[in-house]
Amino acid sequence: MYEYFPGNYVWNLSVVATLNSGGLIDEVDRACRPIRDLAAQGSDVGTAELMAAWTAVADELVAQAEADERAGHRRTAGQKYRRATNYLTQAERMQRAHDPDRNAVYRRCLALQQKVFDLIDPATTRVAVPFEGTTLPAYFTNASTDGTPAPCIVMWNGLDSTKEHMYASGFAEELAARGISTLMVDCPGSGEALRLQGLTARVSTEDWAAAGVDFLLDRADVDADRIGLVGWSLGGFYAPRAAAFEPRLALCVAWGANHDWGAVQKRRLEREGENPVPHYWDHVLWVWGETDLDTFIANAEAVNLDGVVERITVPFLIVHGENDRQIPLRYAHRSYEQAVHSRRRELRIFTAAEGGAEHIGLDHLTHVSVFIADWVAGVFHA
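-> structure tokens emitted (382 positions)
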């Protein structure tokens, strides 16, 4: 993995995620250069300065985009708004859970993302999925150009990503090129659902899946028989769990095999493996709505797919990087070995030699995402 900040895995992960989601190396370098010395002090120190440095680059891009927009250069403006959104969402992801400025930054990200849709991506719209008396915020990329029902993927994020990160990855664009729509959802415990609505994570992810399927079944442009589910990172637990209990799903992809996330938390207490974000324990307590670490660790034992993946009957793809420093590779094998009732199970391990070997393939995100898109298309169009 490219390491802009030698020895600081958490900050490096953010850099490669940004670059592999449409960031430009010159702009990322200008955002990172002022904070090089701080990075040597660990992942928690300097995140406020990181926010300031990355915001400065985003501010410049937004100013340029506004000028381009006034001049009538909509495509150029939209591209700059897209990169500015990418940089801000990555910097926001790195802040303390209850930073007083965090929600204001995130609201700005939402506004900038909407500018992208308005200017260069009319196929993607903001939607709200009804859920337990409230809604799950989402983006819908429509691959149906004439209203004909198209297959659709519901995409879920993980512990610290948002629907804006999912959009920036380009995965929905790849699926649309294959005639497949995408519903990118901020699940409870993530993104806007957590930040602005206070919805925290839970083990019974089939509840969210049912809400997503219900929403899609009300759309005439979605093929009811071809609705699948993809989850990355902690979504590698969320998605298989849902596929085991929501029978209307036609396929499932674990983009990172988070088979026993509870055990991973115990390893992290012992400082084994890497964390995905700074201020890690504050972050997980926020996501799960817990108030103390002991209770969280005890409850996290249920975030486990033993006895669950055996219930999956639909096609099931597990992808994992051989050098994933957050989630052990053995969990990918465990999910595959236990998914004995899937009518089409597949395990794809990405190696360091080819790229995509780090967590969810962030070191070569496109290589992994197009493989998944091709697999999904193969199942849906078989």
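The beta strands are 124-131, 134-141, 150-156, 181-185, 222-232, 251-255, 316-321, 345-350.
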